[in-house]
Specification:
The protein has 306 residues and is α+β, with helices and mostly antiparallel strands. The protein is 39% helix and 15% strand.
């Protein structure tokens, strides 16, 4: 596909909006997870592993190539064939995908997911968020997040290009579908509401005015977050992040970091996150809970059954 035929994500959305337009889809996350964990690289490999229709798979792979996350590489197997290889931009998504599974394992389905072996220490890494400057473990409470003057969560993402595929009651499989995370990442308004909460928004009227969201849509998203145990409604009418909701900051921080490093955006549209303890601009890393060292992609692997 040449440049004239591509449909790039619009830069005026801001980096976070672009990231959600690319990644906020169940099938995209499943494709990426299989690429990292099972090293699937071929169309037939994903089709057989996921049970996905060929038309849907072709569309998602084409988009991932267009966005610079996969690249096509020719190889010969009797005749010339093509496989999809993660680019450097794509490879840098590994920490986000690990954080999604870590949050699901810690807060939604304990014991459901396989251990993540840290080969440097030989232990289950049990990843936790850390500051890449001082290498101290941290949480959302240890940060200050400020939007740039042009940041607007009401325009965090475009209208969805695909029908939403989140299905309530679908169990998480061992290496892929994380339903609670997809309730957040798979919907632009859900992510906008959660981002607003991390920035200190608490009341219905403030969410509505700050996000430009319809009251009926906001009511639905708040209800779903309460059901997920991410928000807790208070008697004064406010909504507060629960410990489970605050823990999702790990995923949010890594998404923001990848987006703002990898995707173009207009000046002043970024989020600025500061680690209060060391005073540095926050550079999120995942730390091994066993040995405390930063986790690197080539030094970890999931212990998959069978």
């Amino acid at each position: 596909m040449d440049g004239a035929e591509r449909e790039p994500v619009r830069a005026e959305l801001g980096a976070i909006g672009q990231a959600l337009a690319i990644l906020g889809d169940r099938w995209v996350l499943l494709i990426l997870q299989r690429a990292f964990l099972l090293r699937i690289r071929t169309f037939a490999g994903w089709r057989d592993a996921l049970g996905i229709s060929e038309s849907v798979l072709a569309a998602r792979l084409r988009e991932l190539v267009d966005h610079g996350i996969f690249e096509l590489s020719a190889y010969r197997n009797g005749r010339t064939r093509y496989e999809y290889r993660l680019t450097e931009r794509g490879l840098r998504l590994w920490a986000l995908l690990v954080a999604i599974q870590a949050w699901e394992r810690d807060w939604v389905s304990p014991g459901r997911f396989p251990p993540l072996l840290h080969e440097l220490c030989g232990q289950d890494a049990e990843p936790r968020l850390g500051c890449g400057v001082c290498l101290e473990p941290m949480s959302a409470r240890d940060t200050r997040t400020e939007p740039g003057p042009q940041a607007a969560f009401s325009r965090i993402g475009p209208p969805r290009r695909h029908r939403r595929t989140v299905r309530s009651g679908t169990p998480a499989d061992l290496i892929g579908y994380c339903p609670a995370s997809m309730e957040i990442l798979g919907d632009r308004w859900s992510t906008s509401v959660l981002a607003g909460a991390f920035l200190g928004t608490r009341r219905f009227v403030d969410f509505q005015s700050g996000l430009g969201i319809a009251p009926s849509v906001l009511t639905d998203r708040l209800r779903r977050f309460v059901e997920l145990g991410v928000f807790e409604p208070r008697s004064d009418g406010s909504y507060r992040l629960t410990d489970r909701g605050l823990a999702f900051f790990e995923v949010f921080a890594l998404l923001v970091d990848w987006a703002q490093r990898e995707l173009p955006a207009s000046e002043g549209s970024a989020l600025s996150i500061t680690h209060l303890r060391c005073g540095a601009a926050f550079r999120p890393v995942l730390l091994c809970r066993a040995c405390g060292r930063p986790l690197e992609r080539r030094e970890v692997r999931f212990l998959l059954p069978g």
